[in-house]
Amino acid sequence: MFDQVLDNFRKASESTIQLQQEMFRQWSRQWAQATGVSKTATATFADPGAWAEQFREFQKYWAKSVTDLLKKHKDTLDAQYESGVKTIEDAFRVADAKDPAQYRRLTEELWRHSFDCLKTVVEDQLREFQTMSETFSEAASKGFTAAGKG
Asked: What pTM was computed for the model?
């Protein structure tokens, strides 16, 4: 039973990683399409200095956004590690059960806690990904629109 709980938790973690990778691939494709659009618009730039300034501003914005994303990711990882330590402590506590009823109760608590932690992590990651996608899309569209007007 104990091995099944850990195995299921491992599988859920692997699925989460696969989901993150797929989301990143999709986001990368969308970003590549957005930058492809900008290449066709470069012929309309009348003032190269304005384009260079806009590009520097976008680089600053990008650096700040990536830094914020990495800080949020670090916070999420810290929370995951804390949760993992608590799960391990709870798992050892399950092994100390005195009778089958207590074993069942502790196992259910361990499963519930593990599932809740995984659910929270996935929700946080999806929320962060959505926020960053919206932020980058908005910055890219505003930047390309402003560049086309210059």
From this structure: 0.52
